[in-house]
Amino acid sequence: MRRVVPALIALVAGAAVLLDFFLENPLLDALGASLLDGAVILGACALLLGLVNLLVVHERRIRRRERGWGTSVVILAAALASLIVGLVAWQTPAFAWFYRYLLFPLEASAGALLAFAVAQAAVHAWRFGRLEGSLLLVVGLVVLLGSLPVGGWLNGLAAVRDWLVAVPVLAAVRGLLLGVALGVVATGLRVLLWMDRPYE
Amino acid sequence: MGWVSQLWQGTYVSAEGAWALIALGAFALLFIVLTARAIAYGPFATRPLAAADRLRSAFARATETGEEVQVALGSGALGTAATPDTLAGLYLVSYLARRAALADVPVRVRVGDATALAGALAALQHGAAATGYPEAFDPAQAEFVAPLPFAYGLGVAEAMRRTPPVANAMAGAWGPEALLPIATGIAQGTPQMGGTSDPAALSLFFGTVEAPLVGEELYAMGAALGEGRHTGSLATQDVFRALIALGVLLGAILALIGRLA
Known about the structure:
heterodimer; A: mainly alpha; 3 domains; 7 helices; extended; B: alpha/beta; six-stranded parallel sheet; 60% helix
C-alpha cells in the first residue's frame, strides 16, 4: 500500500499535467495550474534544504580544518550575509545592489574564463591526437576569426563560418535533438508509469 | 456516463495536439509492450557505452585507492524542462550509491539546484539502506554548490582542485560552464565522462571528455549499467527513430521530385 498510493498519485498528477498540455479544458486547466503551483512551492521549500546543506558541509570542513577550509569560511560568510540582507532589507536597494554589483559581475567574470577553458581543453585534446579535439580547435578558430569585424581575407572565413553553422552544425543538432526528444519521452514515461525512480 | 460528458464539455483539441497525443499514445503502447517483453524474456541486446565501462573501471579503482568518485549533476532542477537530464544524472547517483555502500567508496554528488539536492540525498540514502548499510549514508556526500551556472561550474572545479576525484562523471543539465570542471579534470589527468541534452554544451563534452554521452545516450545509461527493463524503452526509441528517419528521407525525396518536376 505504501508503494501503490504514491504511485497512483504520481500517475494521476502526471497524466493531468500532460493532458492539460494537449487539451483545453476548464477543469484540466485549473487542476494543471494548481499542481504546477504546488511544484513551485515545493521547489521553494527545497531551497531551505539547500541552505542547511551548505551550512552543514562547510561547517564540517572548517571544523576539521580540511584543505581549502578558508574558502569555506568565505562561502559561509557570503551565504549568511545574503540571507541577512534578504531577510532584513529585501525591499531596499541594498538587496538589488547585492545582485547587481556582486553576483552578476562575478558570474560574468566566470563566463569570460570560458574562452581560456575552451582553448586549454582543445589544445589538450589536439596534443593527445584526438580527432574530435583537433576538429574543435580548427572549427573554433575559424568561427572566432570569421566573427572578427576586420575585413580583408577574413571575410572569406566569415562565409565558411556561416556555412559551417547553417549546414553541418544544424544537421547534427537536428539529429541530436530528435534522439534527445525520444529519450526525454521514454524517461518521462518510465517515471510516470512508476517503472523507474532514479531518486531511490 | 453523464459526468464524462460533463467533463468533456468545453474541451478543445487542436489538430497538432491531436496528432501529438496519437503519437505519444503509440509510443507509450509500444513502450509498455517492449518493456514487458524485456522483463519477461530478458533484456534486448544493446551496444556497450564507453561511459558506462569507464564508470565501472573508475569505481573499481576507487575501491582500491579509497579516493572519491564525483558525480556533478549540473544546474538543472527537478520539475523543470531539465528534469529528464537531472533524472539521468540521478540514475548514476543511485547506481553508485548502492555499490559505494557495499564497497565503502566515497561518492561525492555536487548539484546546482535544491530540488536536485533533495533527489541526490534520497538516492544516496536509499542506496545505502537497500544494501543493508544505512549507516553508510552521510548527508554531506551531496553538496549544494551554487544556484547560478557559472558559479556552480567554478565551485565544482575548485572542489576538484581541493580533492582530486578518481573519476568525474558529469551527467545532467549542463551549459558551457561544463568546461570549467572539465578543464580542471584535464589538468589533473582525471578520467572524465558525461553528457547533456544541450547541443551547444554537448559539443564541448564531445571534444574534451574521454567518454562523452552523445544525444540520447545520456538516457541509456541505465540500460548500459545493467538495468534490463530499460532496454524496452531503448527498443521503442529505436523503432520511432527509424520511422522518423524514414519520414525525413521520404519527405526529402518527395521535395526533390517536386522541385525537379
